Amino acid sequence: MIRRAAIALLLACAPVAHAQALDTFLWPPAFERAEIGAVFLSLSSTAQFPRMEAGPEANRVASTNGLAVFDRHEEALRLALVAPQVGVNVAAVTMAPQDVEHRGEDAARYLDEVGASPMVRAIYAGQNNANLGQPRVLRETYTRYAKTIFCVANCLQLSRAVARTGQALEFVVFAGREGVTFRRFLLYRNGVPAGDHAVVAVNGNGERRRLRTNAQGLVELPEDMHGPALLTATVIKPPEGADTRFSSDVATLTFIAPPATARVLTTSPPPEPPPAQPPSVASVEP
């Protein structure tokens, strides 16, 4: 209870000050759902995935791909997909930007955790060299993008899984010539594959594995990783002009990772991403 309250306080205060980057993620009630009907998803932030520890306020949601805000509990904000489609569904949420401060050694650990570029590290070091005698502080404005993939009735209609939603930073299931495995993903930054970029994969036990996209923006799960999983990546950008505040985009994707030996599924070409919509208020019963 104390831990959950502390995380909720971090999310509510501005600027926030914390060491570890929290994972903000979407979570369906089941990744494979037999019934056809409204699906209620949980949006939560945690320092230990997949535990849901703190739900953001509804006004922190900037846009979604058709979800409606339903209600909020201490551990999660619930959103409804009122009319899911048969097959694979993708739910996406974009959060409003928020200010954060990383102080002292926490800032160095954060830069290591997100795989910050040498340029970002050099600018941060230069800022602090210009303020000798002052506490070392990394000031940042971040925007979070959360997605989840789940099935309704079956997992056969795959086109939505391999399509972009239009978020500034997002993971998309990779469709190769042989089809889809749900073990390989493309990381897109502003619609372009982000090559040679740091990615963290987290399994259902909360164990974090550091990975990296290849030159084409493709990342593949380790062979021994399967079950409930989260991928996360951060793009941190240096200040612009006279501003001293860094900015970053943070993406997460939750899904069920099949065993490495699972069969390949075939798919059709992906559609273009629809425009994001402001969240509405759900009027359906859970």
Could you walk me through the main structural features you see in this protein, from its secondary elements to its overall organization?
By secondary structure, the chain is mainly beta. It contains three helices and 19 strands. A hairpin with an 8-residue loop joins strand 17 and strand 18.
What are the key terms here?
286 residues; mainly beta; 10-stranded mixed β-sheet; 5-stranded mixed β-sheet; 19 strands; globular
In short:
The chain has helices spanning 2-12, 105-114, 118-129, and strands spanning 16-17, 23-27, 32-33, 39-46, 61-64, 68-72, 77-81, 87-95, 98-103, 137-152, 169-173, 184-189, 192-193, 198-203, 208-212, 218-220, 227-237, 246-257, 280-281. The protein is mostly beta strands.
The number of strands is 19
User: Which structural category fits the helices and strands?
Assistant: mainly beta
| Percent in strands | 35-45%
H-E order: HEEEEEEEEEHHEEEEEEEEEE
Mean pLDDT: 86
**What distance lies between the first and last C-alpha atoms, to the nearest angstrom?**
26 Å
Rg, Cα atoms, Å: 19 Å
Q: Could you say which overall geometry the principal axes of the C-alpha atoms support?
A: globular
The percentage helix is 10-25%
Number of helices: 3
Question: How does the major sheet shape up?
Answer: 10 strands, mixed
List low-confidence stretches.
5-15
- Our count of domains comes out at 1
